[in-house]
Amino acid sequence: EIVLTQSPGTLSLSPGERATLSCRASQSVGSSSLAWYQQKPGQAPRLLIYGASSRATGIPDRFSGSGSGTDFTLTISRLEPEDFAVYYCQQYGSSSIFTFGPGTKVDTK
Amino acid sequence: QVQLVQSGAEVRKPGASVRVSCKASGYTFTSYDMHWVRQAPGQRLEWMGWINAGNGGTKYSQKFQDRVTITRDKSASTAYMELSSLRSEDTAVYYCARLGAQGRNLDYWGQGTLVTVSS
After folding, report:
1. Which residues of B touch A39 (CB under 8 A)?
2. S-S: B109 plus which of A8, A44, A80, A85, CB 3.0-4.6 Å?
3. Which of A97, A101, A102 is facing B61, going by the closest CB pair?
4. pLDDT of residue A18
5. Chain A residues with CB-CB distance to B106 below 8 A
6. How far apart are CA B80 and CA A58, in angstroms?
7. Do the Cβ atoms of B29 and B37 come closer than 8 Å?
8. Tens-place pLDDT, residues B32-41
9. What does the pLDDT look like over B84-119, one tens digit per residue?
10. Which residues of chain B are within 8 Å of residue A65 when distances are taken between CB atoms?
11. Contact present, B3 and B66 (Cβ < 8 Å)
């Protein structure tokens, strides 16, 4: 089973700054199988990025995804107040199994 | 618009079972798989399994294989997740989520159902 790790655990930034979040897989992951979600306190996760780099419907273009193989990145170009949240990466593996990373919390500096 | 509306919070004693429902609207229920994901307090998301809403086929995480059953009622556009032999570690928010058209991500989520296991 593929294990996902995310770094950093917490990212403390100010509005307007750039956020770079990392997701690393224990084995190579097909780019089409990597997604990112945003979760705010008390809310369900929201799909941001699928296929490693495609934005989901309604997601602002300040969110972008990149990467391949075992290393993937979520970038928020300029943080807005509503972007402070926890971000999870997810991979879809063989045997139709989903795996989530531990999450990166983006909070206010 | 697509909506997944889950049943309300539940409290159970250890050893009991719980069933959570997820009513779908705004799309053709049988055309999309439905997944279940849980999140214990302060923990990461944990995938539990899915059901093919069309033919009823299921796939479960090995961790929950012996205790979880996912079913659906096509006539009611509703999916169900039943977890048995509950223990305190099963206290969590349980989410249903629709498999996206790309087949590799979850594009719409229910609001979550808190299940508390306590004696």
Report:
1. 45
2. A44
3. A97
4. 98
5. 35, 37, 45, 47, 90, 98
6. 29
7. no
8. 999 999 999 9
9. 999 999 999 999 999 998 889 999 999 999 999 999
10. none
11. no
- For the beta carbon of residue B107, count every other beta carbon within 10 angstroms: 18
Instruction: For residues B66 and B82, give the distance between their C-alpha atoms in angstroms, rounded to a whole number.
Output: 11
Taking a C-beta distance cutoff of 8 angstroms, is the pair B111, B8 a contact? no
Nearest Cα to Cα of residue B86 among B61, B117, B45: B117
Other CB atoms within a 10 A radius of the CB of residue A3 amount to 12
pLDDT at A97: 87
Q: Please, is B23 exposed, middle or buried when counting C-beta atoms within 10 Å of its C-beta (0-12, 13-18, 19+)?
A: middle
**pLDDT at residue A95, rounded to an integer:** 77
Q: Is the pLDDT of residue A94 over 80?
A: no
Residue A94 sits at the chain B interface (C-beta within 8 Å): no
And the tokens for A88? Answer: 């999870």
List of residues 6+ apart from B27 with CB closer than 8 A: B2, B98
Pairing, β A19-29 against β A34-39: unpaired
Q: Which of A39, A98, A105 to mutate to test the interface with B (most CBs of B within 10 A)?
A: A98
Neighbours of A21 (CB within 10 A): 23
Residues 30-59 of B with CB under 8 A from A: 35, 37, 44-47, 50, 59
Residues A88, B44: C-beta atoms closer than 8 Å: yes
What is the nearest CA distance from A16 to chain B, expressed in angstroms?
A: 27
Of the candidates B37, B45, B102, the beta carbon closest to that of A51 is on B102
Q: Radius of gyration over alpha carbons of chain B, in Å?
A: 13
